[in-house]
């Protein structure tokens, strides 16, 4: 097999490398080192050649999936291969540029035994179909696909936890090792054909979730995307997977990660945040994760269908007379259609129970409505397939016996042709999808296209499938609620033709414009955009196993040179050393620092973090009832004792002043205030680092709050310190200082009313006002009038005031 791996440095240096496909002009390629665990960087003389990577129209796309889009058959010792026209991986190339070459890497659906025969088959597939097959030993295939994929990843991604060995199976380390080994085999096949400087690689689905790490380790600047076609569970479910971090880190070695819905992407981002400490950013409609200097893009785009393929099959079914045959068979009946794979997550049994419920509640549909349930063969040896099949068959038999000769359920579990399936789409008045969890499910899309001739259609869709958010005109149901689903079926059958046409037109506009070509074209454009700076950055590979990642840095970044540092140290006239001390120094460290400090040109600073400050930073401090935070370290308390007192209203000391002015507004933002005695130019203020300082106020008219403070919390009245206003002496009252002197009393009243505390508070309205507001124990705001101190017996706040 011809190789384009470009991993031989001698071939790179000489420029003699093989070319597969169309001829390309020879380019100056960067050097690539293949030492395990290390990722190369561009040399200075090679950077210029890589600053302008090739455009999309001249590059290749390598599609990597578990299955090749081929049908294989062996007759009389001769192999016969043909394209699978219904394969998504074959259809998606319609969205690529016409001159873009597409290669496929994957496995066959049939076993090829013997190394000689495998080489023969591989040569045929490469020459005729541009496909590179991966062949597995029987035991590896069983543990990889039927083991880890179908018995552990598939149930977990569909929200089924292995509570018992029979319920999905417990984690098996040998199956995980087989999964890794299979991914490595796919990697080896990709290496055989890849040109890392020109090619795009698009990896599909949960079978190959660790493949990005293998490729990124080998080619640090490879342009690689990954798309997950199954649901991604919430973090509470995903975190139960023993290899959760390994898979997350492997996926993050991709440049672009795609999901069908926003919910799946949100779950993935939450897992990255909670398990890896990564935060995402959204800029101009694009979501990205910063991962060691690389930006990993997140793509949300539900897949579509191949419109041309569906329309072509529909014409064939009409020519073969399938549509007329089914119309005669179900003449006089309203057909509801369900098409599902044999899977425990498809909710087939719930659909049958909902049909039974509808017939019981709405007897007018007995003998008139029939549910045709087509069950496709299971895709693998999943969990409880035979048990699920038995339950479905038993439910069908019981419902048909209950309603006698009407036979409301038609159960088809034998393989039928795609032309016959499209004929059923044509005659069905409603399609019902009740999957309890499904990545996408394209059945509703296909039904809408096939009903374009009738110009009307109705959908009853589960809210747990990926296509549900895209079909706003569908009747969404919770399939677990059998009664509500039964009512939804009755609503769909009773809907007027005009309403059906409106819903159909809305759905058809979306499906026809968001087909599979649109999906693949959009993904490729985003992959090109996210990789535009690949050849401009300097990259280093770090880590072992699945902890491997590529660190991407600015092209101007250079590694520190030890000889250069030593040279600069010797030539420097003064040097500064800083050491952070979080815990007692190790033995001998103290002496080393003293020896460094003994040199006259050296300045040594040891930064010691106080334990209490660290605890307060972690949120372990307490908060006062009115939201005033008390965060005072020992050094601050010492300063408070040494600072002079300020005669604020004649009796407040500086420590109480600090408590009063250190406010937290309603949104939790700390604010600072300036307060001083009227007529003086001195005061105190507190910055956001909790540090108190003196501040000179040139024009202090009453010591008002700083202008930058937009809102100040209502202060708590400190018992025993009563501010009274002598009604007979207005001059004395004017000398009183109030922290809210510049606020109108309506604003203060509003602040009191918004305060949810059940404390009694006192707020003077303005400097010379004789009224204020307080709040009683019943959260009622009352107006109070200031009186002489002798009249209220010294009670500053409370029910003793005249209201």
TrEMBL record:
Q: Please note every region of biased composition (Basic and acidic residues).
A: 618-627
| Record-linked InterPro entries | Glyco_trans_20
Gene3D superfamilies given in the database record: Glycogen Phosphorylase B
On the tree of life, the source organism's domain of life is Eukaryota
In this chain, composition skew of type Basic residues spans 687-699
Region called Disordered, residue ranges? 618-643, 678-706
Q: What is this protein called?
A: Alpha,alpha-trehalose-phosphate synthase [UDP-forming] 7
Q: From what organism does this protein derive?
A: Brassica napus
């Amino acid at each position: 097999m011809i190789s384009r791996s470009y991993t031989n440095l001698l071939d790179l240096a000489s420029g003699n490398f093989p070319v597969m496909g169309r001829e390309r002009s020879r380019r100056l390629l960067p050097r690539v080192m293949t030492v395990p665990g290390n990722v190369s960087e561009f040399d200075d003389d090679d950077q210029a050649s890589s600053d302008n990577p090739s455009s999309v129209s001249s590059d290749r796309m390598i599609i990597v999936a578990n299955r090749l889009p081929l049908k294989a058959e062996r007759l009389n010792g001769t192999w016969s291969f043909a394209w699978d026209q219904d394969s998504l991986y074959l259809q998606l190339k319609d969205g690529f540029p016409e001159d873009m070459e597409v290669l496929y890497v994957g496995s066959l659906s049939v076993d090829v035994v013997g190394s000689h025969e495998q080489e023969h088959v591989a040569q045929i597939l490469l020459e005729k179909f541009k496909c590179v097959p991966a062949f597995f030993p029987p035991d590896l295939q069983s543990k990889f696909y039927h083991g880890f994929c179908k018995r552990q990843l598939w149930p977990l991604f569909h929200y089924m936890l292995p509570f018992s060995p029979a319920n999905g199976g417990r984690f098996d380390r040998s199956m995980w090792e087989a999964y890794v080994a299979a991914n490595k085999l796919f990697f080896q096949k990709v290496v055989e054909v890849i040109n890392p400087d020109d090619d795009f690689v698009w990896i599909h689905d949960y079978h190959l979730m660790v493949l990005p790490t293998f490729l990124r380790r080998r080619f640090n600047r490879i342009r690689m995307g990954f798309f997950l076609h199954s649901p991604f569970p919430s973090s509470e479910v995903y975190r139960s997977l023993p290899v959760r971090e390994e898979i997350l880190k492997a996926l993050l070695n991709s440049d672009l990660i795609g999901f069908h819905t926003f919910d799946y992407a949100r779950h993935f981002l939450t897992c990255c945040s909670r398990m890896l400490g990564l935060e995402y950013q959204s800029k101009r409609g694009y979501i990205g994760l910063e991962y060691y200097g690389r930006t990993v893009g997140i793509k949300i785009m539900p897949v579509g269908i191949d419109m041309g393929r569906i329309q072509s099959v529909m014409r064939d079914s009409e020519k073969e007379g399938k549509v007329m045959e089914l119309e005669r068979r179900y003449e006089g009946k309203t057909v509801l259609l369900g098409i599902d794979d044999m899977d425990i997550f498809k909710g087939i049994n719930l659909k049958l129970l909902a049909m039974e419920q509808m017939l019981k509640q709405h007897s007018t549909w007995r003998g008139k409505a029939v549910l045709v349930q087509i069950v496709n063969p299971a895709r693998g040896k999943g969990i409880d397939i035979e048990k699920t099949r038995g339950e479905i068959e038993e439910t069908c038999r019981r419902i048909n016996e209950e309603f006698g000769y009407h036979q409301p359920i038609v159960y088809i579990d034998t393989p039928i042709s795609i032309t016959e399936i499209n004929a059923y789409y044509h005659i069905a008045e409603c399609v019902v999808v009740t999957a309890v969890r499904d990545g996408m499910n394209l059945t509703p899309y296909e039904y809408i296209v096939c009903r374009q001739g009738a110009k009307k259609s109705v959908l009853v869709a589960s809210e747990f499938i990926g296509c549900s958010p895209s079909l706003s005109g569908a009747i969404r149901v919770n399939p677990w609620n059998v009664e509500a689903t039964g009512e939804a079926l009755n609503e769909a059958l009773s809907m007027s033709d005009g309403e059906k046409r409106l819903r159909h037109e809305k759905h058809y506009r979306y499906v026809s414009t968001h087909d599979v070509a649109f999906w693949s074209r959009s993904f490729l454009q985003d992959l090109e955009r996210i990789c535009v700076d690949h050849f401009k950055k300097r990259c280093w590979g770090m880590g072992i196993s699945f902890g491997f990642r590529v660190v991407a840095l600015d092209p101007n970044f250079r590694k520190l040179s030890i000889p250069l540092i030593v040279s600069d140290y010797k030539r420097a006239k003064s040097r500064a050393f800083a050491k952070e001390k979080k815990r007692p120094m190790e033995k001998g460290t103290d002496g080393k620092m003293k020896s460094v400090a003994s040199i006259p040109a050296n300045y040594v600073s040891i930064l010691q973090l106080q334990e209490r400050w660290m605890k307060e930073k972690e949120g372990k401090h307490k908060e006062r009832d009115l939201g005033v935070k008390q965060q005072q370290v020992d050094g601050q308390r010492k300063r408070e004792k040494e600072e002079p007192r300020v005669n604020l209203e004649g009796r407040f000391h500086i420590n109480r002043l600090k408590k009063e002015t250190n406010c937290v507004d309603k949104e939790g933002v700390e604010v600072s205030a300036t307060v001083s005695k009227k007529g003086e130019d001195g005061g105190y203020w507190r910055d956001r680092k909790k540090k108190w300082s003196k501040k000179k106020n040139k024009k202090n008219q009453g010591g008002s709050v700083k202008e930058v403070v937009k809102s100040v919390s209502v202060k708590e009245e400190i018992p025993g310190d009563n501010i009274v206003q002598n009604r007979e002496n207005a001059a004395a009252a004017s000398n009183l200082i109030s922290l809210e002197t510049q606020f109108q009393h309506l604003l203060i009243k509003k602040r009191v009313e918004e305060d949810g505390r059940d404390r009694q508070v006192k707020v003077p309205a303005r400097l010379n006002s004789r009224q204020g507001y307080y709040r009683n124990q019943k959260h009622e705001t009352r107006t109070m009038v200031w009186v002489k101190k002798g009249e209220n017996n010294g009670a500053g706040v409370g029910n003793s005031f005249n209201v």
